[in-house]
Here is the input.
Amino acid sequence: MMWPTLPVRANDTDKSRMGRVLVIAGSRGMAGAAVLCAEAALRTGRGYVYVATVGAIAPEWTAAVPTAILRCTNDREQAQLTNVDLAMLIDASSNVDAVVVGPGLSDGVELWLGESVEVAHCFCQC
Here is the structure.
């Protein structure tokens, strides 16, 4: 199968005009999911890639994708995102064009995070 080629960037383009993506991903033992997702966004030409994740995977994550911008919880022992982290996630999503949610999130996160996204979507659409 042949994939279509990505559009060529104009010579005068800077990364601030190429889109901003937030990846909400990862948990202890699943840092690779967040890394793969962030790398995919960078390889497709996004200008800025932000990753919101837990502090437990921050060291290996930063080493794996140093070109992305990391937003993580302050607790370096925290294994998964919780509803307490919602303010950080909302803040991280305030200046992006797209949000990817889910790669490598632990069990239970999808429930409260999904409900929060639905509430935020309804709030923005009203």
Remarks:
- The beta strands are 20-24, 48-53, 69-72, 98-101.
- The chain has a mean pLDDT of 85.
- Residues 18-125 form a domain with the UDP-N-acetylmuramoyl-L-alanine:D-glutamate ligase fold (CATH 3.40.1190.20).
- The longest helix spans residues 109-125.
